[in-house]
Amino acid sequence: MGDQTDPNGTPQTGKSDPLVIIKDLVKEFPVHGGAFQRQVATVNAVSGVNLTIQRGETVGLVGESGCGKTTLGRTLVRLLEPTSGTIIFDGQDITHLKGSELKPFRKRAQIIFQDPYTSLDPRSQVGTSISEGLKLHGVKSKDERHQRVTEMLELVGLQASHAGRYPHEFSGGQRQRIGLARALILKPDLVVADEPVSALDVSVQAQVLNLLKELQSELDLTVLFIAHNLAVVEHVSDRVAVMYLGRIAEITSRERLYEHPLHPYTEALLSAIPIPDPDRPRNRQILQGEVPSPINPPPGCFFNPRCPIAQDGLCNVDVPKLLPGDDGPDHLAACHLRTGDSSQLTVNSSQAQ
Length: 353
Ligand code: SF4
Description:
The protein is of the alpha/beta class and about 350 residues long.
């Protein structure tokens, strides 16, 4: 069963040309306190994540606020220094590159932020903001920069004349188009889209998602699409990874995740998606309690204090590994009762009824 799963624990889904391989990635933040500002605790934001992203693939990364998804995205593009683990990008280990060594990678890996307004300089015309990356990466000719900004503005559905305007003159959706233009101007291979539509109205969200999907296929981008809502990633992702308290809880193709979720946390997230049909019955699962603190995560499965089927003596003791469940090697979950040996799978089916 495991022979179709790569050594990284990430299933192969037809494609086998990884652009990104993340191995055992850990990102911790020290908490300082007291009169001498000594380290008094550690925030375990990302706790040993393994993830492979194939070239041209879009992986949706979903979880509640504080689950570590944004930290994972920012660590991947090296805006944050990993605590341990490895990040391989296009065959090169970029985990600990510094300064000028990072420059070629920075050109090839870009990030789109949730609120482009805060990431745009309010005193700069948007054309200047978009062309900054070109300048930094050695495009000296002003005419060439102008030409490329014009092309990029048109590609994201804006007009060349918009280059001379300031960020406050645009709507939220237009600003996110500017954010896209700025991220794509250097023709990157990898884009981390960090909740790019969560600050937008629902009607505008669909436009930006459609645009991102078109650009992804037109420019052959590899995308890590971060969202807190499974409904949003459904339309853009080839595979979806569900994250909980710094760990991957489940990962598989979009179709399988939505049709046959394995992890109880994924089930709860799916049950929260609104169904636009009043006659269709729904089985909303309300998760009890809050996400535990990443400063003091619970022992065993991190989800055990909130899990409706947790087993005392197992779930609060052993950390579940990301393993295949009952529908093939491309569908992995970290749950003692939904993966692994058949006796536990039997327990799972009887409990799920
Ligand atoms: Fe629930 Fe246990 Fe599975 Fe964790 S390992 S999701 S607590 S059943």
